[in-house]
Amino acid sequence: MKNTTITEIINLWDKVLSIVSEQFDKQLYDAFFKNTKIDSINGDKINVLCDSELTKTVLEEKYLPFLESTVNKITGSNYHIAFYTSKDEIVYTPKNDLSTSSQFFKRNIIDPNYNFDNFVVGPFNNEAHKASLIVASNPGTFYQTLFIYGGSGLGKTHLLNSIGNYIKENNPTKKVLICSSQDFINEYLEFVSTDSRKELLTKFLRKFDVFLIDDIQMLKDKRKTQEFFFQIYEEFRQSGKQVVLTSDKLPGDLDGIDTRLITRFTSGLSVPICQPDVDTCVEILKKKIVASGFELENYDPQVFALLANAFKDSIRSLEGALIRLNFFASLNRIQYINLEVTEQALEGMFDSKAAKEKISERKILEAVASYYGISVSQIIGKIKTANIAFARHLAIYLIRTLLDTPYKKIGETFAGRDHSTVMHSVEKIQKLVDNDTQIRNIVNDVKSRISSK
Ligand code: ADP
Ligand code: MG
């Protein structure tokens, strides 16, 4: 949880406190819990600040296991809690010897929770994954600059840390520095007030063989920091070292960034992470469930489809939804998680009607496709052979009559066909159903396949 933001920390502790307040009586809560807060998170250690020695002792001796298991249920991780009062000095356990033993980049550790093993690969991130793996196993060799770009919550930071962990494990003599661009800016501002400080920072950075820098778009308009970064980056390039950058945009689309940098980024290897597909999202959900110690059998498979459809724009929010769902289920002691529980747990977080429609639409498409031995993409596509065209009319008819989906929306699913084409399909099949027993039987057959799916 290296990238834990202040808001995430506050949210986490708010959630913990709300569970505590429900479980214990108010006086106890007010006396020992209410005035606690997370001071910081250091690797897998959460430092909780208490308002007195007494609170600290009580929490340590009586409530530590409860609080730790609550935190770990919420986060799906394995954190330990240490209690402090303002008089104590918080001990930070160093993880990455080089960066932490120095005065620079103290907070920058490679997140041990992000590795290639728990990174699910699908069509949308395949290229980025491959390139990262190549770079991690041959740092500085094939692609000295790797530039990974993609929208928020799609796995850039996860990949960057995976590269770091892989190198640490397989190539331990290589020194890896990972930092967010914001950290880089902060370090620069903090230490370059004098030339000698700047020299020290430069020297420190030179010791590394691999430089992993996250969210480079954040250097926007930071002219001085960019200049300094450029100098370091050039040194890395010239000494055959590895640099990996992530960004929310393609190098050429970055604004407020020095063209010299953009040219260098462009001449390296750039790989995208695109919009995830539903199937990979389902796989990610399953992996996260297993990793957090929950049982897949306790979920109605439709829950995965519902979540994947509703949250596929960001894996971060997909994960957030799952955490909230699991939290809701354990709080209410619900064993089996079905669609209803999911809707209750995530109330207000997504348009469940729209998401459900999508699943049902998918079921209809799949049922018709399997009935005719063709694929869903053939049904929604443009090929006009008689068999496929008929299956298409039928799927459109079923979506309209079973789900009452507007013609225009159906048209969007079917390769952008217009309103009148869709209407024509519905009318055509309706007429056949009214007059032709054989067609009526086919329709009923497909319908029963849909409901048994
Ligand atoms: P970004 O940096 O692109 O905004 P992150 O790397 O922080 O996104 O990913 C957000 C969350 O989604 C993280 O918890 C990460 O573990 C998870 N995640 C993203 N992509 C994958 C994936 N392919 N497999 C498993 N988890 C993923
Ligand atoms: Mg990120």
List the helices and strands and how they pair.
Elements: H1 6-23, H2 26-33, E1 37-42, E2 45-50, H3 53-75, E3 80-85, H4 97-101, H5 126-137, E4 145-150, H6 156-170, E5 176-180, H7 181-191, H8 195-206, E6 210-214, H9 223-238, E7 242-247, H10 259-267, E8 269-273, H11 278-291, H12 301-311, H13 315-331, H14 339-345, H15 352-372, H16 376-380, H17 386-403, H18 407-413, H19 419-435, H20 437-452
Parallel strand pairs: 2-3, 4-7, 4-8, 5-6, 6-7
Antiparallel strand pairs: 1-2
Helix pairs in contact: 1-3, 5-6, 11-12, 11-13, 12-13, 12-15, 15-17, 15-20, 17-19, 18-19, 19-20
The structure holds adenosine-5'-diphosphate and magnesium ion (MG).
Magnesium ion is lined by residues 156-157, 214-215.
Broad structural category = alpha/beta
Alpha carbon gyration radius: 27 Å
What gross morphology would you assign?
flat
The parts where pLDDT drops under 50 for at least 5 residues are 93-101
Average pLDDT, all residues? 89
Number of helices: 20
Helix content: 55-70%
Bound molecules: adenosine-5'-diphosphate, magnesium ion
End-to-end CA span: 39 Å
What percentage of the residues does DSSP assign to strands (E)?
Answer: 5-15%
Query: In this structure, how is the largest beta sheet organized?
Result: 5 strands, parallel
Please list the strands of the largest sheet in the order they lie side by side: 5-6-7-4-8
Order of helices and strands: HHEEHEHHEHEHHEHEHEHHHHHHHHHH
Give the beta-strand count: 8
Give a description of the structure.
With 453 residues, this protein is of the alpha/beta class. It has helices at residues 6-23, 26-33, 53-75, 97-101, 126-137, 156-170, 181-191, 195-206, 223-238, 259-267, 278-291, 301-311, 315-331, 339-345, 352-372, 376-380, 386-403, 407-413, 419-435, 437-452, and strands at residues 37-42, 45-50, 80-85, 145-150, 176-180, 210-214, 242-247, 269-273. The strands form 2 sheets. Strands 5-6-7-4-8 form a 5-stranded parallel beta sheet, sandwiched between helices. A 3-stranded mixed beta sheet has the order 1-2-3. α17 (386-403) crosses α19. Residues 114, 118-120, 125, 150, 152-158, 284, 315-316, 319 line the site of adenosine-5'-diphosphate. Adenosine-5'-diphosphate is lined by residues 114, 118-120, 125, 150, 152-158, 284, 315-316, 319.
